[in-house]
Design a protein that fits this description.
The complex is a heterodimer of chains A (98) and B (826).
Chain A (H helix, E strand, L loop, with lengths): L1 E8 L4 E6 L5 H16 L8 E4 L2 E8 L2 E7 L5 H19 L3
Antiparallel strand pairs in A: 1-2, 1-5, 3-4, 4-5
Chain B lengths: L6 H10 L3 H20 L6 H14 L7 H9 L3 H14 L10 H9 L4 H14 L2 H15 L4 H17 L4 H8 L8 H17 L1 H8 L9 H14 L7 E2 L2 E2 L1 H15 L3 H17 L5 H16 L4 H16 L3 H14 L4 H5 L2 H7 L5 H14 L5 H14 L2 H18 L3 H15 L7 H11 L4 H14 L4 H20 L12 H13 L5 H17 L4 H10 L6 H15 L5 H4 L39 H11 L18 H13 L19 H6 L16 E6 L2 E9 L6 E10 L5 E9 L5 E4 L14 E9 L8 E9 L2 E9 L9
Antiparallel strand pairs in B: 1-2, 3-4, 4-5, 5-8, 6-9, 7-8, 9-10
Classes of the chains: A alpha+beta (98), B alpha+beta (826).
Chain lengths: 98, 826
């Protein structure tokens, strides 16, 4: 199950966030900050799946924007990776220059 | 009041803020404007304001005052209003807010709206945040929509149904008839969401699962064949621009179907058989050059592993995983390692083939991959590859990140214990771990190691020498220093005498040894526990070393005034030992006997062998060295697993059992240690029972004088076997049977062997017979002792087998003994 979907830029500013489970509003910012910290500390040739607390993060970087999806154990990580790309392609088609 | 700014403007303004404080200020200003606008009940701009509010909410600012406005928007007739209203409802309202129930009526009306887009909105919102009451009320509407022919609505209705089922599981049956036709659609959207719905139903309810699996009237409506057909179409069909992702047709749907097949096929032979072909087809036909193909293959592998597939298919799956491991892409390797970890239990041999690749992954830069590779390597270690694997793992331990070291060290210890090819190798490995990752080793490893070292008697000299050399250089790693000080204390004499066969013996003087132990004591880096170890070691050396006793006395007396209470107590006691009880010192500080490894299944009240590392504190702990092994012998026989363990032969000094026992008793009785000197050895007679039972000179079992009648177990061909019984005082489940075999014929019986077997609930132990020749004419007997453990107090039965040579021919006989007297086993 997808727990959350985030688009965060390199400075840590949230551009889009969608939570599919209830998370307290003040905890959200903390979560986002930690997640982006984890993602920024990875280098280019490391794998895109991070284990964070009790779920996995799948992240993908597009220029200065990180798209991060939090999933639980039942999901296929690689399918979610594809989903992220699909989503970005859809946004690209719909809004022209993304 | 000027028209409120648009959302885009707001976003642009917020982005110009350079600091967090500036941003907060802007947002507060805007919030105030929005609030006043809400108060004015301004219909035209309401949707704009709510949109801005939602954006601010996403950034993390409170927006609860917009909830009612969302409701007003939902109730409006304009589509743009409804759209924002429903979005706001999804983000801001959930079960915890009271106002959400007010939406129910709106949603109901909208579900029956003429425009499909409005209906769609309502379905989305219900599916996102509907509470159980709302779901119960509106489930009927959703079900109706599930049956429409409009595919746009159908797919949304299916997802909404998933949410309803999650919230109110009892309503699952309501959706069952509607699912019959769901998979007949052409539209991929509907197919996808239907598969999700079916998956959810099957996961939630085993009844549903059984229902979907069973054979129905029309074979075309069976679920598994339908899914197989859809999957086949997806793979076989040509290029379809609508669904194409990098050359593969709708991979998301393929993955979903594979997952549903997995759930259907788990533990079910028929379904698994039906899907074998398609799985093989997917596995072989999917292109692996892009991530998409690999995602599908990964799901396929997971499915193959989970269902009852045939072995050929399983091998195919593991080979795919092996290929993944060789791929350059990190994601794929990570995924492969994760799946291999899941399958290593069931398909161990197949995974072994890829061992070298897995071991290479240990050297990867990526943390996630390293962790997976480490776990997998531990799962793969077995008797054959332990040397090679251990080398790699030790190298890994050297170079890995600190977060791994503790886990890796524990894993290495476990593996070494299970598969060590030789004692020397085992000790070398442990030494290596202690020196490289000494400070990360878990605390419970230290007693285990010590016990292991005592068990390998022939390696003592070698071990103590290596440990000594290790701490000479560096004594900061606590577990290493603890083990080393313990060993030096025990085997210091071997160290100084320089007798070591395995390695170059080093020349060490007693003073040098004491130097190192003293520096451990003094050092700031040593923990309190470590200092305790060192002090005890120094004390033990007072009996092993000959020329430095005075130095030891001095050290011990210095610590008598230490601030650390534990050290002070020890030092004071040792001092007393020197002054008043000097004659007991050698007995007390004797070398530790070999500790038996206690099986972990046994009862836990046994004298813990690990506790023997600290023998010195007399008051608080059970009596040390000489007494404990015999206690163990008693307790070992209590253990259920006791039949394989021979009772430990106590090595406590036999020279003065009586007096040592007596004086120990007095010490124990005399709590202050300042009491009057013990002159005469106190009589051993009226004593605390636990101590006496342990002393060497005592028989371990007492007969009960009013004995149990003995029986004749066997009497044939001149051979007569009598059983006499004794019951143990300390343990009522143990019966000791003494057999006496006599021969009334005129020729001797030679090579007599007596064997016995008892039912499974009993345990039997046969001690050695007095001889193997039974002389003729009843002139002598063979005596043998059997110990039977009968914890469940069942009736004793025994089958015996006798083999002997008589009159030049070999004789053999089997008999059953059933006439045991009740007192022998009750």
């Amino acid at each position: 199950m997808i727990k959350f979907f985030l688009m965060v830029n390199k400075q840590g500013q949230t551009r889009l966030s969608r939570y599919y489970e209830h998370v307290e509003i003040n905890k959200r910012t903390v979560l986002e900050a930690e997640v982006i910290k984890n993602c920024l500390s990875r280098s280019k040739d490391q794998c895109s799946f991070i284990e964070y607390k009790d779920f996995k993060l799948v992240y993908r970087q597009y220029a200065a924007l990180f798209v991060v999806v939090g999933i639980d154990q039942t999901e296929n990580e690689m399918a979610v990776y594809e989903l992220i790309h699909n989503f970005v392609e859809v946004l690209d088609k719909y809004f022209s220059r993304v | 009041m000027p028209a409120p700014i648009r959302l885009r403007e707001l976003i642009r303004t917020i982005r110009t803020a350079r600091t967090q404080a500036e941003e907060r200020e802007m947002i507060q200003k805007e919030c105030a404007a929005i609030r006043s606008s809400f108060r004015e009940e301004d219909n035209t701009y309401r949707c704009r304001n709510v949109a801005k509010l939602l954006y601010m909410h996403m950034l993390g600012y409170p927006a609860h005052f917009g909830q009612l406005e969302c409701l007003k928007l939902i109730a409006s007739q304009k589509f743009t209003d409804k759209r924002i209203g429903y979005l706001g409802a999804m983000l801001l309202l959930d079960e915890r807010q009271d106002v959400h129930l007010l939406m129910t009526n709106c949603i109901k009306n909208d579900l029956n709206h003429s425009t499909q887009y409005v209906q769609g909105l309502a379905l989305c919102t219900l599916g996102c945040m509907g509470s159980s009451e709302m779901c119960r009320d509106l489930a009927g509407e959703v079900e109706k929509l599930l049956k429409t022919s409009n595919s746009y609505l159908r797919k949304k209705a299916a997802l909404c149904a998933v949410h309803v089922i999650r919230k109110v599981p009892e309503l699952m049956e309501m959706f069952l008839p509607a699912t019959k036709n769901l998979l007949n659609e052409k539209n991929h959207g509907v197919l996808h969401t239907s598969v999700v719905l079916l998956t959810e139903m099957c996961e939630r309810s085993p009844d549903m699962l059984a229902h979907f699996r069973k054979v129905r009237q029309l074979s075309s409506s069976q679920l598994v064949p339908q899914l197989v057909r859809i999957l086949k179409n997806l793979i076989m069909s040509g290029y379809s621009p609508e669904h194409d992702v990098s050359g593969i047709s709708d991979p998301f749907l393929q993955v979903r179907i594979l997952r549903l097949l997995r759930i259907l096929g788990r533990n079910d032979d028929d379904s698994s058989e039906a899907m074998n072909d398609i799985l093989a087809q997917v596995a072989t036909n999917t292109e692996t050059s892009k991530n998409v193909g690999n995602a599908i293959l990964y799901e396929t592998v997971l499915t193959i592993m989970d269902i009852k597939s045939e072995s050929g298919l399983r091998v195919l799956a593991i080979n795919i995983l092996g290929r993944f491991l060789l791929n350059n892409d990190k994601n794929i390797r990570y995924v492969a390692l994760t799946s291999l970890l899941k399958t290593v239990q069931t398909d161990h041999n197949a995974v072994q083939r890829h061992r070298s690749t897995i071991v290479d992954c240990l050297k990867d830069l990526d943390v996630s991959i390293k962790r997976r590779a480490m776990e997998l390597s531990f799962a793969l270690v077995n008797g054959n590859n332990v040397r090679g694997m251990m080398k790699e793992l030790l190298y890994f331990l050297d170079s890995c990140e600190p977060e791994f070291k503790a886990d890796c060290a524990s894993g290495i210890f476990l593996a070494a214990e299970k598969y060590a090819p030789s004692k020397r190798w085992h000790i070398d490995t442990i030494m290596r771990v202690l020196t490289t990752a000494g400070s990360y080793v878990r605390d419970d490893a230290v007693p285990n190691l010590i016990q292991l070292i005592t068990n390998s008697v022939e390696m003592h000299a070698y071990t103590v020498q290596r440990l000594y050399k290790a701490i000479l250089g560096d004594y900061s790693q606590q577990p290493l220093v603890q083990v080393a000080s313990w060993c030096i204390g025990e085997y210091g004499d071997l160290l100084v005498s320089g007798q070591c066969e395995e390695e170059e013996p080093i020349q060490v003087t007693e003073d040098e040894v004491l130097d190192i132990l003293e520096s451990v004591l003094i050092s700031n880096m040593s923990a309190s526990v470590t200092r305790g170890y060192a002090l005890t070691a120094i004390m033990k050396l007072s009996t092993r070393f000959t020329c430095t006793v005075n130095r030891i006395k001095k050290v011990v007396s210095i610590y008598g005034s230490s601030i650390d209470v534990e050290l002070q107590q020890r030092a004071v006691e040792y001092n007393a030992l020197f002054k008043k009880y000097d004659h007991m010192r050698p007995a007390l500080l004797e070398r530790m006997p070999v500790m038996e490894k206690v099986t972990t299944n046994g009862p836990t009240e046994i004298v813990q062998t690990n506790g023997e590392t600290e023998p010195a504190v007399l008051e608080t702990k059970p009596p040390p060295s000489g007494v404990q092994p015999a206690n163990q012998a008693n307790d070992l026989l209590d253990l259920l697993g006791g039949s394989d363990i021979t009772p430990v032969i106590p090595t406590a000094p036999t020279s003065k059992p009586a007096s040592a026992g007596g004086e120990l008793l007095d010490l124990l009785g005399d709590l202050n240690l300042t009491g009057s000197p013990v002159s005469a050895p106190a009589p051993q007679i009226a004593q605390p029972p636990f101590l006496l039972d342990g002393l060497v000179s005592q028989p371990l079992f007492n007969d009960i004088a009013a004995g149990i009648p003995s029986i004749t177990a066997y009497n044939k061909n001149g051979l007569k076997i009598d059983f006499t019984f004794e019951r143990s005082n300390t343990n009522p489940s143990v019966t000791v049977i003494t057999i006496q075999a006599s021969n009334s014929t005129e020729l001797d019986m030679t090579d007599f062997v007596f064997q016995a077997a008892v039912p499974k609930t009993f345990q039997l132990q046969l001690l050695s017979p007095s001889s193997s020749v039974i002389p003729a004419f009843n002139s002598g007997t063979i005596t043998q002792v059997i110990k039977v453990l009968n914890p469940q107090k069942q009736q004793l039965r025994m089958r015996i087998k006798l083999t002997y040579n008589h009159k030049g021919s070999a004789m053999q006989d089997l008999a059953e003994v059933n006439n045991f007297p009740p007192q022998s086993w009750q």
